[in-house]
Amino acid sequence: MYQKLNSVIGISIILLLAACGAKGDKTGYEYAPQMYHSVPYEGLSQVMDQSAGQMISNREDGKGEFYNSNPHNPNEMTMRLPPEYTVKRNRYGLLPYNIPKDSLELAARQLKSPLSNDDAVLAEGKELYGRFCTHCHGTSGGGDGLVGQVYMGITPYNSVAVKDKAEGHIYHVITYGKGRMQAHASQLDPMERWKIVRYVQTLQQQ
Amino acid sequence: MPHDKFHYEFMFGTLRPACLSLLSLLLFFLLSLNSVQGQTDSSQVEISPDNTAVAVTSDGTDEAVVAEGEKLFNTNCRACHAVDKKLIGPALAGVYDRRDLDWIKLFIRNSQAVIASGDEYAIDLFEEYNKTVMTPFNLADSEIESILSFIKFEAENVTSAAQTDAGVASTDTGNQAPSSFLSAVLIGLVVVLALILVVLFLIIGFLTKFLQQRDELDEADRDIVNQKFNLTKLVKSPAFVGIVAFVFGILVLKSVIDGLYQVGIQQGYAPKQPIAFSHKLHAGQFEIDCNYCHTGVRKSKSANIPSANICMNCHGQILTESLEIQKIYAAIENDRPIEWVRVHNLPDLAYFNHEQHVKVGDQECQTCHGQIQEMEVVEQFAPLTMGWCISCHKETKVDTKGNAYYDNLVELHAQHSNEPLKVEDIGGLECAKCHY
Asked: What is the ipTM of this complex?
């Protein structure tokens, strides 16, 4: 009898503690939840459930301890888009790019790279090209990257159609996209785009 | 005779357990054989057919022109056209029969002008291919002609080439040899063990029979010879109960300690996401760089979860029918962000900065996130405990080469230590670096 009771207690302790760890959809338990969860709004971790952590809550508004959303923002998001008509400052003093998407030829004629053609710029351009372009355009710019082979329609840089395109053309295409290529302005800041342009120019001439 | 008794006891005391352990060994081998078989099965799937192109002799067309055309086709046309199937643009086989040479030249050099001139065929083509604009190619007459002769050559040889391809495709058995050798060895072992087992049982039977026929055995000896394996008696014996209780107690203690250590650690957390995005496919199979989507990783505290527009860089065009991709379209249409479930919940009491670790520290993503390129569903790989942070800061050397910022630090450090400069020496263990 005593042994039976003992084993029941033992097994229930094991089961109870096995439930402490995280697995699948469960985050597991925490020692001090109030120290773990952010009180101020935190980007990238929005909690919209108003009753989350209700049991340990001592908030004045009566909501759960873990509730972390801004009811004044669209979709209760904790992050916001920058206000309209504001300009992001950058350390290069570059003004925002304001040639419209359909003026590709104007960009090709007028835009000049602020960067020199030295090896340091090329090396940085190559690194950025590897991160942002290779999967479609391929290491040598032949349009034969692993994604490119599936995506298709990627003109090789050394093809007759594009091998003589000016730096402004390349910059404009990275910014707004062209044909099946989409805009990459949200992923690359202006200076990074100009570095990639320098490297792409070497691939055009191969 | 006491000597005899000892003898029988020895005989039966060792023979029976020996048979039992052999039996379990046999079982183990059978099991491992099974798993090896499984591996062999999966390795067979990976064999890919060998697509070696077979050189086909030319039939009347000038080989040099065709070769020139192939080169031009590969650099200029292949991105959107194939000879025998539709890609972004139409299949080009037979184009020289469908349109005359002048039309083709005009269209290649400026397709938009041909469409604007009201040419019906060109307008239909433009509509059929979702108004995809063909890039103008300023190719010379001779170049266009050589491309056309390459297309003609390809179109005529494509069926025979496909046939030879199928013929060439054969399975390569070379890389299977080690595992089949291993199974052969295992099978041999199993057979040998089974034989030994049979022989042992035969000996036991024979000896028992022989001893039963002898008359000089007393009662105790007879008991030993005729003893049966008694499970209930064994289970009830104090030694057995003691051992079981001890093992059980140790197990309980271990799981209590393990369980307590798991509290507050989310290692292994792998929540189901609203869209079944696979890192294995994107980062593994297609080798898309982590930075492409997680754009903040070198610029800010957070690596950032990509917004829908980055998905649309590709999925605006491909896999548009997929139900999972449709969820992205819905999110954009309703102007509602996709509610990804955060996997790595670092406690609010600790500060972590991606830029510091990835850009300055030059750490690979995999160091903390595990083999993310093999994960179908993202799982927290590291425990993200303070001990884990500290142990890395104690081991990791600082790359000071070519960085004047560290010159004085390296000099000062060298005065009282022979060890290379590590993260802990430049403040990697300061409390206020991460807790404030």
From this structure: 0.88
